[in-house]
Specification:
binds phenylalanine; 364 residues; 9 strands; alpha+beta; rod-shaped; two-stranded antiparallel ribbon
C-alpha cells in the first residue's frame, strides 16, 4: 500500500489504536509530502491540488477518514497531528511558490537585460580618397593663378585623341599609347589615352585667351605593375594668349612645383618630345626625399621626373582655326596618381584602388 492509499482507509482499517501509532503514521505522510515537493521541476499547482484540494486532496481525505471517525481517545492526537501537517504543507507550498516566482522573475530579467557595456554600432565616416585630395590640391594651385576647371569625355574619337594633336595615323607616338578601342565602332571610338583631347575641344569651342585645367581619368593598355595600371588620372593644363612666352611657361611650372612640393623644391626642364608641343620638356623637381643630394628614390640623380609639358605646337592651332601667327601658349599633362604616390610616399599604385581601409585611413 502506498502512503497516499493509506489516507483512503480509516484508522481502524489501518490498525492504528494508540497516539504513538498516530504520530508515526503522520510522520510517514509528512515524509512522503517532503519527498514529493523536493523535486527540481515541481508542478506546484498539481502538488497543491493533490494535498490541499477541497474534495479529494490528501488532507481532506485525512480529515474525512482519520479524524472524523476516530475513537474519542485518539481524536485529540489526530487533530493535533493533522493541524501540524496542514501548517507544514501550507508553509512549504507557500515557500515553493515564492521560490518559483523569484526564479521566473530572475529568468525574465536575464532575458530582458540590456547590456549597456556593449560597444555601439559605429558608422565609419568616409574621407576623400587620396586621389581626390590630390586633384583638389592641384586644382587649388592652378585656380589661384587664373585657370578654370573643365572636364571632357572619357570615350573619345581618334581625331581628338590623336589627329588634332598632331599625331597622324601611323605616327610612332601612337605606339606607346596602345589604346582601348571600343568594339563595334570600327576604330571610331576609344578610351582617351590622355586628357590632351580637351585642349582641342576647348579651343574649338572658345576664342582665346584660354587658361584651363582638365582633371580626369585616362586609359592605356599597360600591363599592371607597381607603377602602371590600365587606368590612371591626369590633369591637363593649357594656356593660350597673344603674349605667352617660354618665360611664362617656366614661371608657371616653377610656381606649381614650389606650391606642390614646398618652397625649397627646385625645377629643371629637360628636353623631350610630344607631337603637340614644340619645344617639349619633361619637368623635373629636386628629389623630395633627399632634397637633391641623391638617394634611392631619385636613383642618386637628385631629380625626380614630374610631368610632360611644352609650348603648344603651332600645327595644333591649325586644327582649331586659331591664328598661329598671333597666338602662343603652353600645355602640360600631369599624372595625378604618380604625383600623389611621390608626395605621400605610396610605393605601390594598386594600393590606390584596392579600397583597403587600412590604407585609406592613413589619409584622413
Ligand atoms: N598628354 C601627354 C601624355 O599623356 C602629356 C602632355 C600634355 C605633354 C600636354 C605635353 C603637353 O603623356
Amino acid at each position: 500500500m502506498t502512503t497516499a492509499d493509506r489516507t483512503e482507509q480509516t484508522l481502524a482499517q489501518l490498525g492504528v489504536d494508540s497516539p504513538e501509532q498516530v504520530a508515526s503514521l503522520f510522520d510517514g505522510i509528512r515524509g512522503f509530502f517532503d519527498s514529493t515537493v523536493s523535486t527540481g521541476d515541481l508542478d506546484w499547482k498539481a502538488a497543491r491540488d493533490s494535498w490541499l484540494g477541497r474534495k479529494s486532496g490528501i488532507l481532506s481525505n485525512i480529515t474525512d477518514r482519520w479524524l472524523k471517525p476516530a475513537p474519542p481517545e485518539l481524536k485529540r492526537a489526530v487533530g493535533q497531528e493533522l493541524n501540524k501537517l496542514k501548517a507544514h504543507v501550507e508553509a512549504v507550498l507557500e515557500q515553493k511558490r515564492l521560490e518559483i516566482e523569484a526564479g521566473a522573475e530572475r529568468a525574465a530579467l536575464a532575458r530582458e537585460r540590456m547590456d549597456l557595456s556593449l560597444p555601439g554600432i559605429e558608422r565609419a565616416t568616409g574621407t576623400r580618397h587620396l586621389i581626390r585630395q590630390t586633384f583638389e590640391e592641384l586644382e587649388r594651385i592652378f585656380l589661384a593663378i587664373g585657370f578654370s576647371v573643365v572636364q571632357g569625355p572619357e570615350i573619345e574619337s581618334p581625331y581628338y585623341n590623336f589627329e588634332a594633336l598632331n599625331i597622324p595615323e601611323h605616327h610612332p607616338a601612337r605606339d606607346n599609347m596602345d589604346t582601348f578601342y571600343i568594339e563595334g565602332t570600327r576604330g571610331g571610338r576609344l578610351l582617351r589615352t590622355h586628357t590632351s583631347p580637351m585642349q582641342i575641344r576647348t579651343m574649338e569651342k572658345q576664342p582665346p585667351p584660354v587658361r584651363i585645367i582638365v582633371p580626369g581619368k585616362v586609359y592605356r593598355r599597360d600591363n599592371p605593375d607597381a607603377t602602371h595600371g590600365y587606368m590612371f588620372h591626369q590633369i591637363e593644363g593649357l594656356a593660350v594668349d597673344t603674349d605667352i612666352t617660354f618665360c611664362d611657361f617656366k614661371g608657371t611650372v616653377e610656381y606649381f612645383v614650389r606650391e606642390f612640393l614646398g618652397p625649397k623644391a627646385k625645377t629643371r626642364l629637360r628636353p623631350s618630345y610630344f607631337p603637340f608641343t614644340e619645344p617639349s620638356a619633361e619637368v623635373d623637381a629636386t628629389c623630395h626625399v633627399c632634397g637633391g643630394s641623391g638617394c634611392r628614390v631619385c636613383k642618386f640623380s637628385g631629380w625626380i621626373e614630374l610631368f610632360g609639358a611644352g609650348m603648344v605646337d603651332p600645327a595644333v592651332y591649325g586644327f582649331v582655326k586659331y591664328d598661329a601667327k598671333k597666338l602662343s601658349g603652353f600645355a602640360f599633362g600631369m599624372g595625378v596618381d604618380r604625383l600623389a604616390m611621390m608626395k605621400y610616399g605610396v610605393s605601390e599604385l594598386p594600393l590606390l584602388y584596392q579600397n583597403d581601409a587600412r590604407f585609406l585611413r592613413q589619409f584622413p
